[in-house]
Amino acid sequence: MKFLSAKSIKVTQCFNYINWHELTLKITEPSDLGTLTHAQAKAKSPVIAANDAPDKTKETVLKHNNFTLLRLDLDDTKLDIDSIADTLEGMGIKSYIIHTTASHQQDGKGNRYRVYIQIAESVTYKVWALLESYLSYVFMADDCATRPQQIMYLPVRFDGDCYEYKIGEGEPLNVADSQILVNAERYAQEQTKQQEQAIKSAPIKPAYKQNLVGKQISIINLVNSGFTWEGLLSHYGYKQQGKAYLPPEATSKTAGAYILTSHTDGKERYYSHHESDPCATGQCLDMFDFIVIREYGGDYKRALHDIAKTQFKQIHKHNQQEYFTHLHNESVNAFFAGGEK
Fold it and tell me: What angle do CA 294, 297, 303 make, to 5 degrees?
């Protein structure tokens, strides 16, 4: 069992591979880089992947389809290193590595850990994604199942860091015979069931009507086509858990927000079951609705004006010119209409 590795994130070819023993050595004996900021140290950190593909591109990783490591990203978690280890042990995971990241407790940031779980045999992406989503749910971690090509920064030391690690030295996880895989499959089935129910029952919120004149361009259409749900949800602090997302306000650890694809127009919209979620309106929202609620407290007029000015400056200028042309034409038409009387 080996893992794709490189000297830094900048490497795009000529990769090498390390095994579990070599990985533990990199955790117990990280390089000391001296006087650097945590961002500078991170940029100089070696990296590994959760697979043994020839390179780190998504296309190559999925085509290779051989995952050799389970991993978790715990950013700003309330857990400490001992409670993470206890949870892993309680799940029957005996061979693992936990270490802090370069930004752990730096510049006001909270606890940040990376977890690696040794597995006895490699798995396909389908199985790997199931396990990653379930483990992310258990630990309220960032779900990397949708990013199979994502690499992990290995630790380095630098002045002022808060580095710590913990290693479990038991047997690797036998995925095929594990209760974790059973639980992961049940979890995925339940999410699919909830998503299907939401698609059937959730009404679509009518689109906000922007009054356009002349050849004005719709800012709402530009927002809905110019952003991605993945980017928006990440920006507002959502955590993905399989097919669902956990809003930042959620008091439970079970994700209940979904991106649903309409059977009528094929568009993707947001729907949430969370009572604490301001976007849980009982309707499916498009991206513009979502941003208006999140960023502008539901004030559509202010949102339109501000988004146009800040995100689509040239279009905003064009729309203003069209508006003034429209007013001029109306004035001319009114003048001639009055003259005919």
Answer: 85
